[in-house]
Amino acid sequence: MSISPVRRAVLVALLSLALPSTRVVAGEGRAPIPPADVPAALALPPDEAPFLKLQARGTQNYECRPAKDAPQRNEWVLVAPEAALFDEGEKQVGKHYAGPTWESTQDGSKVVGAVKAKADAPDPTAVPWLLLGATSTSGRGALANTRSVQRVDTHGGKPPPGECKPGEVLKVPYTATYYFAGAKR
After folding, report:
1. Considering the entire predicted model, what is its pTM?
2. Rounded Cα–Cα distance for residues 25 and 157 (Å)
3. Nearest-CA neighbor of 32 among 24, 21, 43?
4. Which long-range contacts (CB under 8 A, 24 or more apart) does 170-173 make?
5. Is 164 in contact with 75 (CB distance < 8 Å)?
6. For residues 62 and 78, is the Cβ–Cβ distance under 8 A?
């Protein structure tokens, strides 16, 4: 049976309205993600482009320890982040924890990074914006091809200024946007 081009176009349009849209977690089949608006030091390498943007909500966790440069003084030291990662539809799709590590709860893929550059956040109470390079990846899913991660739009997360009591633990609420980047296609 042959369908005319006009009827084919009408059927495609009707099907696109009737079928629920599906969202590919990373890469193929979705609109490109515009790059983050960041200071030059946090720009992605020229051969990389963002493929995934997630929102983080959680805490930056600190412990009071002797200062490295002055052991007689105590200071808050970052132990690890602890956050849930959400897609644009507000669906929880991952978690962020020590390493720093980002892990997809959808497919088990993960990326571990190391800080390459940082810049002060516009909000003085916020943790800095970062550019991180992937030191390892695992799995075959959404995060497996990550080369770089940018942390931007941070709010909160900094410990209070001043001294603390050794051994004290502090969880400071924060939010951030993470851009995951891979090789340009």
Report:
1. 0.82
2. 27
3. 24
4. 170/61, 170/62, 170/63, 170/64, 170/76, 171/59, 171/60, 171/61, 171/62, 171/82, 172/59, 172/60, 172/61, 172/62, 173/58, 173/59
5. yes
6. yes
Q: Is 112 helix (H, G, I), strand (E, B) or coil?
A: strand
29-87 pLDDT, tens digit per residue, is: 566 898 899 999 999 999 999 999 999 999 999 999 999 888 899 999 999 999 999 99
The residue type of 153 is: D
Q: Which two tokens stand for residue 165?
A: 């009591």
Structure tokens given for 169: 């633990």
The residues spanned by each domain of the chain are 43-183
Straight-line distance from the first to the last Cα atom of the chain, in angstroms, rounded to the nearest whole number? 38
Q: How far apart are CA 54 and CA 85, in angstroms?
A: 6
CA-to-CA distance for 54 and 164, rounded, in angstroms? 33
